Amino acid sequence: MCGIVGIVGRHPVSQRLLDALKRLEYRGYDSAGVATISGGTLERCRAQGKLVNLEMRLKEQPLNGFIGIGHTRWATHGAPTERNAHPHIIDGIAVVHNGIIENFAELKAELEETGADFETSTDSEVVAHLLAKYRRDGMSGQEAMHEMLKRLRGAFSLAILFQDDPSTIMAARNGPPLVIGHGDGEMFLGSDPITLAPLTNEVTYLVDGDWAVVGKTDIRIFDSEGNAVTRPRCTSTASADRVTKGDYDHFMEKEIHEQPEVIARALARYVDIAGHRVAPLSTGMDFANVSSLVISACGTAYLAGLIGKYWFERYARLSVEIDVASEFRYRDIPLSPHAAALFISQSGETADTLASLRYCKGHGLKVGAVVNTSESTIAREADVIFPILAGPEIGVASTKAFTCQLAVLAALAVGAGRARGTITEEEERQLVMSLAEMPRIMTQVLRNIQPKIQLLSRELSEFPHVLYLGRGTSFPLAMEGALKLKEISYIHAEGYAAGELKHGPIALVDEKVPVIIIAPHDRFFEKTVSNMQEVAARGGLVILITDERGAASSKLETMHTIVLPNLEEIVAPIIFSLPLQLLAYHVAVFKGTDVDQPRNLAKSVTVE
Ligand code: F6R
């Protein structure tokens, strides 16, 4: 989604704003722009498309000035054109905005009646016009800011420059995060601490409803009533150093290969590997005494939650209500205050997931956050944080965060099982031993399956449709495999429960549709093989992903068979994620798509 940067500096800011925008690229965007104040005048440069376009424009037409704001725009209202790119400038006021102004149509109509002439089709431009109107009415910048914020409805963060005040940036937050960075005689603004990491690690988070006047050496923060408030200054652990591709061609490729290492780190936190126990640390939630569990999340994080549901039900005998957060938040679900809730989010900023968390908190549930970003809003609002420790994930398609979410959920489910007495000490020992073997097995799998996956990917890249099937935890995994393929290669892909095949999807099967069947040799294997036969009987192209036992017992001819080592049931979905991720990655590479920043997608979805 959109990203915001700002610098009130001692040195020229244009290049630094551009560098900071580059650190926001991972969030997804389709145009970008910067504005500075130089010699008492606002200067602006904008470009459609990627930041290289803006960079080229800035070379032709450099911007001067020691104060400036910048923006990467992910279009919501209005096409991703240069004209719609931020900053919007009206009467010496420059505005960048992240989020959605829900009442913009009403405000626009009102402003047009008083003579405002709108240049763009964005919702954001109303902010600049409202401020300009209040200034014309005689208000100071600060007064105009306060009045303007009272009129906005929706989720937004804002950074604003007033041409007649070249030493201040105004900022506001109501939803999407905004961080103020403290420098040495300089101040910074950013959508997240990673943006600011090379500039400073000393940050202050604005909370919802806050607005701020940011000078070179001081900040003044106000709440929505206009009362001065203090927000703590803290040291962020975000680091920009780690955010490089290293020897890899894409962040996604690097993140796939980082999984053995990051899973080991996550496991070290949640399980006592030597003692073969779940670590007591992970019992921050009293699973022994909860009546049921509620899980909500979006996209890949939701699919991790769906696999978690199988584990919590099986090992802890806890019934789990799970839904995508965009539905969950509006379903008016009757909730027991004796239930516990888990919200899963890589970014920790997903608007629907945050709203669902607040809904559960409002109903008195104890709320846990399974997050990658421990400084995120979801983490800060939860009662208990379960960090997944995946490290920064830059590729828009989630890979290592997904498997780390699974590793954490698996450990929590086993811990819950012990706390509830639904698994024995010996069962816990076996399960923890299986989890502990994952980093080694992952390394081996990543090394061994690459050549085969590359071969298969080249063939698959020629097909317009692909089906994925699985049973048990392989069903959410089938959906995750399909999601990964469609989002980065733009091939239409669907994941189904294999048992649903005959209830509809089989109508799609013919010799032009590859069907990827995820079938570890588990208690569902025979049934999945029957579904595979149904596909083969209709000329469908079967691609079987199985383990050694499965490969030995399946006699069916396949287009390709990918064979993984034999695995315990609890780790199978985590290890089976690897071929699915690699497949999507290599197909996208063959198709020449933008792997790390696929079209129309954003890494951090801060609006609903
Ligand atoms: C897909 C993907 C998305 C995210 C979803 C939730 O590869 O990454 O589906 O999983 O947007 O994002 P977070 O986890 O940040 O809440």
Q: What does this molecule look like?
A:
This protein folds into three domains: 3-235, 4-Layer Sandwich (Glutamine Phosphoribosylpyrophosphate, subunit 1, domain 1); 246-436, Glucose-6-phosphate isomerase like protein, domain 1 (Rossmann fold); 448-594, Rossmann fold, CATH 3.40.50.10490. The N and C termini lie close together (11 Å). The protein has 19 helices and 27 strands. The longest helix is centred in the C-terminal third of the chain and has 23 residues, at 438-460. α16 packs parallel to α19. β25 (514-519), α17 and β26 form a beta-alpha-beta unit. By secondary structure, the chain is of the alpha/beta class. The strands form five sheets. The protein has an eight-stranded antiparallel beta sheet with strand order 3-2-4-1-10-9-11-15. The chain has a seven-stranded antiparallel beta sheet with strand order 5-6-7-8-12-13-14. The protein is globular, with a radius of gyration of 26 Å. Bound molecules: fructose -6-phosphate. Fructose -6-phosphate (F6R) binds at residues 298-301, 345-347, 350, 353, 397-398, 483, 487, 605. Fructose -6-phosphate (F6R) is lined by residues 298-301, 345-347, 350, 353, 397-398, 483, 487, 605.
Hetero groups in this structure are: fructose -6-phosphate
Helix percent reads 25-40%
Number of domains: 3
> Going by CATH, what is the homologous superfamily of the largest domain?
Aminohydrolase, N-terminal nucleophile (Ntn) domain
Major sheet: 8 strands, antiparallel
